[in-house]
């Protein structure tokens, strides 16, 4: 029987308990087996619960802690001085087996450093990776990693990212997930040494369905289920999607805000579009997962609203049910065995 | 007196003379001082001119050559076996002083290799860079480089990119162009060694208006006039803009194509939007420039239509008038002098 308890960093993100508390309550009603431990300042959490008319909930408990990590804190400082922070206590709960997953909208660098320190890496994994799902034009999704857990990677790490991404994607698919490497050309001769070495390793791996290189303009075309790249490139790429999407939304909003008949009509015709466009920023919409650890860690966007934070909790539930960390271990073992014999 | 003669690779791109010839004729009527040398297969070029009812034009000449370079040819093969290709002959015309600029929609790798071989690098420049202008939300433009002329770069090259970008941008501005480095965080502590080293060099350069790091989601926010990054990252970034923009356009088109009243109304309300959205793909719209050479080389997108190819010719005219190569040299000399004394 799985322990569907999720530890929530109630204090993280731009809005803290004002977002995390209502999101938890919504998630509890969506997932009947879910239990939530809200970690943070008890009085702030209680206040938000009261606003929602809740004084007690059978599947919700509070773990009081006074310390919180601000967004300006360096990872090294977080490790040294913030062991009692809401974020760190959440990770302790997973490390001790009281919870199966952590969801936090707090400081990304601190979350990565503390996660690695408290949960440890899975055997065979050298570096954790941040992964999120891009939407595709055909309403499927493509997992992309690393989105910035590392500022540089070697070919071995990229190979491990491919294994981790495959383990995450295979639950959504009937066939083997298609794995591609993000590159600056589709031809075999193009790209830097890193992608070329990784391509060689992936083509030789029998248990990975490697489909070749992919360029930035193909990201949403459903040509791969998993896209691997180093963390610097992945982070730039994700944020560029975000920036381009924002530019479009702003342009449309400009058109809609004019006092002309056209503006009036567009205001009535296009609102649903914005809801759809929101999903284009997966990090903001659904949260990103930190893979490669002995536990499930979901990073929600700092500016997440109630719906977005609830989606991040939903992602945690999804990964707990599918036991992603042990799936990664199993897959890695198969692939490594095959390479050794 | 400037020589406003532009050598056009008539055979390059997906459509060859069918696009390059009408685009040249349009450009000639827009720029009264422009002279064009169309380089390629004489009979194909003449046929397209006849279609336009032109048998002779005082400012248009044809340089016949039979060889063309396909998109699959490797740069090394282009260098060895395609010295008489339309692209190579265009570059010869610039090297010999008969033309001031080349515009080609042909094989990018071949164009870069042949340009470097035939035109040579400017003194003080180690690597050429591909640059293009992104539109900003406030209808200005931001020059970004390198977009893929190099698959990797060191801090010295990035510094030179900043100098070249500044020389290109200063014509549009009354004040010193603001230079930023593309990074995965805005904080000083973030980023890889490459960006950190380049940041240090740029902060110390008195003649560069360095404004710090920029993230992918800020590209269109008019926070910099010049953005520097290595060619791998820049190419992924540009193509990601293209892919995201395409996804949006496709979504809007879906909405517009429905047979409902809403679809009908949107078809009438939104057509101008697509024109505006097209400018979001600068590479496709305006061409990219190869900077750092002793001559002006404009790379048009392979799939450019007549308008886009004409825009690329316009960019060539713009750069000839502003004598970009000698401006780069001057600026580089000032910056280097300052560093040595």
UniProtKB/TrEMBL annotation, chains A, B:
Described purpose of this protein according to its UniProt entry: Catalyzes the reversible formation of acyl-phosphate (acyl-PO(4)) from acyl-[acyl-carrier-protein] (acyl-ACP). This enzyme utilizes acyl-ACP as fatty acyl donor, but not acyl-CoA.
Keyword entries, A-Z: Acyltransferase, Cytoplasm, Lipid biosynthesis, Lipid metabolism, Phospholipid biosynthesis, Phospholipid metabolism, Transferase
Annotated GO biological process: fatty acid biosynthetic process; phospholipid biosynthetic process
Catalytic reaction list: a fatty acyl-[ACP] + phosphate = an acyl phosphate + holo-[ACP]
The protein's assembly and partners: Homodimer. Probably interacts with PlsY.
Major enzyme class: transferase
Pathway: Lipid metabolism; phospholipid metabolism
A UniProt-annotated Pfam family: FA_synthesis
Similarity annotation: Belongs to the PlsX family.
Lineage: Bacteria, Pseudomonadati, Pseudomonadota, Gammaproteobacteria, Vibrionales
Localization, UniProt: Cytoplasm
EC number: 2.3.1.274
Name used for this protein in its record: Phosphate acyltransferase
Highest taxon, organism lineage: Bacteria
Gene name as annotated: plsX
GO molecular function terms attached to this record: phosphate:acyl-[acyl carrier protein] acyltransferase activity
One GO cellular component term noted in the UniProt record for this chain: cytoplasm
């Amino acid at each position: 029987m799985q322990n569907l308890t999720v530890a929530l960093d109630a204090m993280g993100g731009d809005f803290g308990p004002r977002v995390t508390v209502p999101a938890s309550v919504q998630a509890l009603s969506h997932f009947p087996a879910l239990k939530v431990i809200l970690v943070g300042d008890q009085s702030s959490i209680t206040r938000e619960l009261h606003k929602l008319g809740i004084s007690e909930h059978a599947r919700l408990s509070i773990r009081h802690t006074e310390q919180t990590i601000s967004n300006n804190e360096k990872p090294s400082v977080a490790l040294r001085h913030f062991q009692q922070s809401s974020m760190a206590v959440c990770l302790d709960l997973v490390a001790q087996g009281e919870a199966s997953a952590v969801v936090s909208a707090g400081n990304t660098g601190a979350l990565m450093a503390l996660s690695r320190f408290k949960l440890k890496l899975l055997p065979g994994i050298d570096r954790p990776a941040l992964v999120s799902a891009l939407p595709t034009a055909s309403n499927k999704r493509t997992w992309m990693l690393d989105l910035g857990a590392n500022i540089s990677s070697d070919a071995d790490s990229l190979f491990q990212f491919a294994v981790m991404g495959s383990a995450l994607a295979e639950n959504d698919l009937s066939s083997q997930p298609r794995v591609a490497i993000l590159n600056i050309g589709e031809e075999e001769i193009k790209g830097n040494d890193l992608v070329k070495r990784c391509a060689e390793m992936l083509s030789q791996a029998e248990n990975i369905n490697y489909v070749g290189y992919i360029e930035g303009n193909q990201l949403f075309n459903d040509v791969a289920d998993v896209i691997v790249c180093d963390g610097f490139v992945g982070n730039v790429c994700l944020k560029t999607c975000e920036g381009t999407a924002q530019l479009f939304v702003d342009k449309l909003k400009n058109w809609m805000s004019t006092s002309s008949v056209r503006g009036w009509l567009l205001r009535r015709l296009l609102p649903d579009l914005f809801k759809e466009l929101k999903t284009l920023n997966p990090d903001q919409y659904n949260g990103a997962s930190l893979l490669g650890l002995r536990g499930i860690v979901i990073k929600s966007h700092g500016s997440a609203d109630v719906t977005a934070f609830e989606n991040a909790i939903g992602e945690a539930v999804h990964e707990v049910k599918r036991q992603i960390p042990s799936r990664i271990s199993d897959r890695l073992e198969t692939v490594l065995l095959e390479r050794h014999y």
